[in-house]
Amino acid sequence: MQKMNGTGHTQIKSILFDMDNTLFDFIKAKHAACEAIVEHLGLKDSRELFNYFLRGVYNFEAWENIRDYMNDRSVYSEQVYLDCCDLYERKKLESIDPYPNVVETLHQLKNMGFSLGVVTDAHIAHARSRLVKTRLFDLFDVLVTADMTGTKKPSPEIFLHSLNKLQIYPHQALFIGDSLRRDIEPAKNIGMVTAYAAYGDRNVKEERSCRADYWLNDISEVFEILNSRGQCACSLMAN
């Protein structure tokens, strides 16, 4: 854990997390889903399909990206398309596993008395299914998704909604996320303590002018943050 900027020592009451690429490697799971579709279609190079999701034409999770890929390769039919969409969702969920130390860290934070939350741009159904699959769902006190608030990151509204649900002030929350622009900057702007999940950052083309209060190379380093603020005399490795 690397401290990036000076912070005060207000007691942290809640720890909030981004979900994809902070709790688990969602990009790896998405690649696995693309590979399954390409194999099913008898084509090659799943990176081409993955790049369709990166175009920004549709939502990053929209099935229309699969449709366009199939049309451009003259393999589209309605039934095959629906089969591919089903395969995409099944393989993606099947391939999601927590990052190292995530489960242990969350359990220990709960045992220490912190309330925990997830703030994600994913739809509620997708967020719930991913957290249930990784056996993390029951560890969180709140789950706030974009469709619940009508806004997406970096809008401050989705962060403020989570704080309201927990009935805490921004300075009483630590937010951990992999995106400097969509997680760290808006959380910091409203007064939350921030920790950058560098271990999960896949945002290679993202603006990086914002600096988090802390830098994490492993999620278990959150205990070093708490130690530095006088809130934790223990570590994951000590238990």
What report would you give on this structure?
The structure is a single chain. The protein is α/β, with parallel strands linked by helices. The protein has two domains: 2-24 and 99-238, 3-Layer(aba) Sandwich (Rossmann fold); 27-94. Helix content is 43%, strand content 12%. The chain contains ten helices and seven strands. The chain has helices spanning 26-41, 46-53, 64-72, 78-94, 102-111, 124-133, 146-149, 156-166, 180-189, 222-228; strands at 2-3, 14-17, 115-120, 142-145, 173-177, 193-197, 214-216. A seven-stranded mixed sheet has the order 1-7-6-5-2-3-4, with helices on both faces. Helix 6 links the parallel strand 3 and strand 4. Helix 2 (46-53) packs across helix 3 (64-72). The radius of gyration is 19 Å and the shape is elongated. The two termini are 19 Å apart. The model is unreliable at 235-239 (pLDDT under 50).
